[in-house]
Amino acid sequence: MRRAVIVILDGLRRDFVTEARTPRLHAFAARAERFAAHRSVFPSATRVVSSSLATGCFPNRHGMQGNSFALMEAGRLVAHDAGLPEFLQHKRAVTGSSLAMPTLAQRLAPQGGVWVFSNVSPGAAYAHDPDGWGHVYHRAGSFGPGRVKVADPLAVSLDAAGDRAMTERFVAEVLPRRAPLSVLWLGEPDHIQHEVGVGHPEMLRVLAEADRNAGLVMDALAGDAEALLVVASDHGHETVVGVIDVDAALVAAGLKEGPDSGDVVTVSNGTSCLVYLHPAHAARRAALGAFLAAQDWAGQVLEGDGLAAVGQSHANGLAFAVAMRSSEAVNEHGVPGSALVALPRGGKPDRMGCGQHGGLGTWEQMPFLLARGPGFAPGGVRQAATSAVDIAPTVLAHLGLPANGMDGRPLQAPG
User: Fold this and answer.
1) Which of 62, 145, 199, 397 could form a disulfide with 55 if both were Cys (CB 3.0 to 4.6 A apart)?
2) 25 and 165: one domain?
């Protein structure tokens, strides 16, 4: 049976894929097909993209509404950080499902299964296989079928050194298994951009390490012309130029009862904010929408058809999604793309001048996608719009399996 391998360089916007900055990716593009209009999903955040890649569906169908979002629990809106290790198990207990659509791990279990090595948040890693159909290795815990802990867990750090150790083990131990699908999800350069900013010299150093890690996988598969190799990112980054306390603004406007009240619950997703309205306060919807639309920090306010257009819905009481205002302004390193962020819960920092994502800004919605294998033209450039939901059906098409029920489409050229 054929095999597919996916390598994700988390947070890498495609204007940074150049011969000088990423020589291995640049060289690979000459042997692969490049997708020039590839976009993230919304929010442009890793836990959402992981779920969309795993299911081939948008959030309105798989149910991971954001990196953080709210659930209705015992009549109350409760905000959650979806990156925590046990979040998807909690979501299953509350809603009846971890993800509402089948994952590639579930679909490919009869064919030999899926192996995932991931160095991002636990929630993002486990979204590939929350129900234990295959193998997921992560520093917070590594599991085999049935979500049984494995005897050889992944013990790495969230940095360039950890990515390198994970990649070397992936190449040595996972690729020789020739599983139907193997996924390597690097934590860099996303992690470093949150720490020092987009284009910072340290970010460029770490990016070079990520490029070399991707090259190790490319080298290992160089002799397998029948393998599908997808190398991509999940989203880009923009520079934080302001932090908005959306909760405080709503309280001051008389639209939310207090900072911790459950009538209106706002959940930051970096450069976007999800606004939930408890059904008991539905009469407040029009005033809430009018207020949000009037704020200079709100780039786009989405509801109804607008939510549907970005693959979201009113599930869990989601009333509005706000993409925070962004611009083409350059940062201190000469890199374009700046945005406001919504103040996160729990004291998690969003540092001025550092990288962030989650919204609809030009540069955070500019990941890259390269594909090499049967059905893809070496050195070709495809101009049609694509997104993360297209990767799962592309994998299944390569393996000769149906992709029924997915929002995405196979990207192979018609044979």
Assistant:
1) 62
2) yes
